[in-house]
Specification:
The complex is a heterodimer of chains A (about 190) and B (about 290). Chain A is about 60% helix and about 0% strand. Chain A has about 190 residues and is an all-alpha fold. Among the domains of chain A are: about 40 residues, no CATH class; about 40 residues. Chain B folds into three domains: about 50 residues, no CATH class; about 130 residues, Nucleoside Triphosphate Pyrophosphohydrolase (Alpha-Beta Complex), CATH 3.90.79; about 70 residues, no CATH class. The termini of chain B are far apart. Classes of the chains: A mainly alpha (about 190), B alpha+beta (about 290). At the A-B interface, helix 4 and helix 5 of A face helix 3, strand 6, strand 7 and helix 8 of B. Chain B: This is Large ribosomal subunit protein mL46. Chain B: One of its GO terms (molecular function) is structural constituent of ribosome.
């Protein structure tokens, strides 16, 4: 009986709302809302704060991105000529070169390029010969036995990192004690 | 059914025996042992030894190089070019702080001596140490340091010393018995079953040399091969000849100084021709890099 009454009320409310009779409809809307208190309001309480928080966070993120200034690049000190070097008082008094000397220099440069080219071609040829010898060796090994060939092709994990001291101008002295060196490191360190 | 089988069995046995028969030059008792073991296997099953054993004996040799310790002397054109480049760079440069100081000091000295000098004016700028004095003190320090000699003629002549010819890369040669002759060659030894050729080369270095050489082997791959056939008198079906595989190594530490009786030499690439056989030298020359 009460259910039927409630349903009848809802139906009335619905028809009044649709006919835009404001006064009655507003009173009945309140009643409509009161009827439906048990059904929806709990959900609204949870969903709205969460949604509002999310909206606020998104807005904050967008604001932060706009406010962020792009960081400056670290200057490469080698590419910047220090102002000291452009000082006019530092210019060297260059003596003028005679014609023969400048000619001699140009010819020497050409001679040098020819010499270097010969050296380079000889190096390339030597490397090619070495590679050819290696290829021959691998082919012969393949003819011999397959497993030795496979073992030869495997990488040696102990080889790298490989270091070797290069040549200096004079050979090392056997019983030389190098003096202790102290130095102040004045390199500029930039933080971004 | 039974008769043809018997015939097949009788054919295969002698063929297998002939394969492994004969002795190779430089072969050890190991080879004999393997032949009997394999034969025993063939008697039971034919499929086990389907892989044909090659008639070539395998050996591994090590090409140990001592890299240059000092920089090489400049050739005449390199010296000339270096000199010209230095001059050109000097002309294009500007005066440094030290040079400016020198000029200032020289000016001040000349003004002092001219007599036209007001000491009160320049009392603040007067320095205790002149730049020229600094330079002189640096020169003195340099002279007090004696570097080792670059070239020592007596050591260069001694072919067994590892300290000779510090500007070139040297290769190790050992005198070994091959067949009936004693020859100078890169240290080699025969390959044994169960090890890679790289390990054989390492063994060659450690066993044949009395002195302790510490070497870094550059990889597992051989860098060259030399094969020679035995003279027809000794040649059999089982061993036609030998294949020697070369492996490269770099000397990292030479052990105690060599005794005068040691049978090995350190030679430059140009000197190898006096000690090695021509055919051998031709193959070895390719992979020994001089630069």
């Amino acid at each position: 009986m009460s259910n039927k009454f409630y349903i009848y009320l809802l139906q009335i409310c619905w028809t009044i709302c649709t006919t835009k009779h404001y006064l009655i409809s507003s009173i009945l809307k309140c009643h409509y809302a009161l009827c439906l208190i048990r059904a929806e309001p709990k959900k609204k309480k949870k969903a709205d704060p969460r949604r509002e928080l999310q909206l606020r966070e998104r807005l904050k993120k967008r604001l932060k991105k706009l406010e962020k200034v792009p960081s400056q690049f670290i200057p490469i000190e080698d590419f910047i000529t220090p102002a000291k070097c452009l000082d006019e008082t530092r210019e060297r008094s260059t003596p003028k070169l005679s014609f023969e000397e400048s000619e001699g220099r140009a010819l020497l440069l050409k001679e040098w390029s020819r010499y270097k080219k010969k050296q380079h071609m000889a190096e390339v040829q030597a490397i090619e010969l070495a590679l050819k010898a290696q290829r021959e060796a691998l082919e012969e090994l393949k003819l011999e036995s397959e497993e030795l060939y496979q073992a030869a092709l495997m990488q040696d994990p102990l080889l790298f990192p490989f270091t070797h001291e290069g040549p200096a101008y004079t050979p090392p002295k056997t019983d030389y004690e190098a003096p202790d060196g102290k130095f102040n490191d004045i390199t500029k360190v930039y933080t971004q | 059914m039974a008769a043809p089988c018997r015939r097949m069995a009788s054919w295969s046995l002698p063929r297998f025996l002939s394969c492994f028969g004969g002795t190779a030059v430089g072969s050890t008792g190991f080879r004999q042992f393997s032949r009997t073991a394999v034969c025993r296997v063939t008697l039971q099953t034919k499929s086990m030894t389907d892989k044909p054993s090659s008639p070539w004996t395998l050996m591994a040799a090590v090409c140990l190089q001592r890299l240059p310790v000092i920089s090489a002397d400049l050739s005449p054109i390199e010296q000339q070019f270096g000199h010209v480049m230095h001059q050109m760079e000097l002309e294009k440069s500007v005066l440094s702080d030290h040079e400016l100081q020198l000029l200032e000091d020289a000016e001040r000295m000349s003004r002092k001596q001219a007599g036209d000098y007001d000491s009160d004016e320049e009392g603040k700028d007067e320095e205790i140490m002149l730049a020229q004095d600094l330079e002189d003190s640096w020169e003195q320090k340099l002279k007090s340091f004696q570097p080792a000699h670059r070239v020592r003629a007596d050591v260069d002549q001694d072919v067994t010393s590892v300290q000779r010819c510090l500007a070139d890369s040297l290769v190790l040669l050992a005198e070994q018995q091959v067949g009936s002759q004693k020859l100078w060659l890169l240290p080699q030894t025969q390959w044994q079953e169960g090890e890679t050729l790289q390990q054989t080369a390492e063994r060659a270095l450690t066993t044949l040399q009395a002195a302790g050489f510490k070497a870094t082997f550059l990889g597992n791959t051989p860098c060259g091969v030399y094969k020679y056939k035995l003279p027809k008198a000794i040649r059999t079906e089982g061993s036609v000849g030998t294949k020697v595989f070369f492996f490269k190594a770099i000397l990292s530490d030479c052990g105690p100084p060599a005794t005068p009786d040691t049978p090995f030499l350190w030679l430059k690439k140009s000197e190898l021709q006096h000690y090695l056989k021509p055919a051998y030298l031709m193959k070895v020359d390719h992979f020994i890099l001089d630069f």
